[in-house]
Amino acid sequence: MKSLLLLLVSMYLLMLGYMYLTQRSFIYFPEHTRPARIPSNFEFTNDGHKLRGWVLNKQQEDAVLYFGGNGESLEYSLPLYKRIFPGRAVYMLSYRGYGDSEGTPTEAGIYSDADILYELVKGKHRSVSLVGRSLGSGVATYLAANKEVKQLALITPFDSLVSLASSHYPIFPVALLLRDRYPSLQRVQKITAPTLILYAANDRIVPESNTQALIAAFPSDQITVSRIESAGHNSISQFEEYSSGLQEFFHRTD
Predict the structure, then answer these.
(1) pTM above 0.85, yes or no
(2) Fewer Cβ atoms within 10 A, N terminus or C terminus of the chain?
(3) pLDDT of 40-90, one tens digit each?
């Protein structure tokens, strides 16, 4: 019995070590997005890496920065956001290591790229708004808490990556292991922009409790919430309520 216990403890510790050393392979899935199927039409350099993406309607005075979900091939969403935001310039940047962007994804690196993108866009447009989906919600809350933002929309967001990972891996001390944390909940008090949260009733990746924790942190007069029935984490953008919800929110808060 003692030998069995020692074996189980040893296996557990080995698993902890493996998860710690390879944790970013559990967080980021850039391999699903490479190479991009449609050539990008803007790029910039940061930390010696070329970051590439797409801009729609670049002649418009107001801009939206879209930060996508994990493993999302942004080029397939170009027609959707061109239709949703015909009166705005829409910038869609592939995270470092995703699509045709160079580098390796990390939380700090992605924030740094987002900072530069914001400054480039801010210099060309009258206002900047943000849309962040899933992983991108953590990037969007980072910018919204630190930059001047007109509107903020969060799609299938989570309160923090620590909380989310803990719900998926309850037997591991995730709070001690994680290097990339995306603590959106901690940033809410610094966010002043009108905020929309769209989430899926059948989300199997971000539990509703993680989204509700984020919702509860916002002042009620600052936030609009829409729960899309029958939608899943990856299918939410296929529902008409998704497009209409974004359009109504941005029109109402203009």
Answers:
(1) yes
(2) N
(3) 999 999 999 999 999 999 999 999 999 999 989 999 999 999 999 999 999
Domain of 27: which CATH number? Answer: 3.40.50.1820
Query: What residues make up the domain containing 244?
Result: 2-252
pLDDT tens string 116-173: 999 999 999 999 999 999 999 999 999 999 999 999 999 999 999 999 999 988 888 9
Position 106 pLDDT exceeds 90:
yes
Joined together, the tokens standing for residue 95 give 């995270």
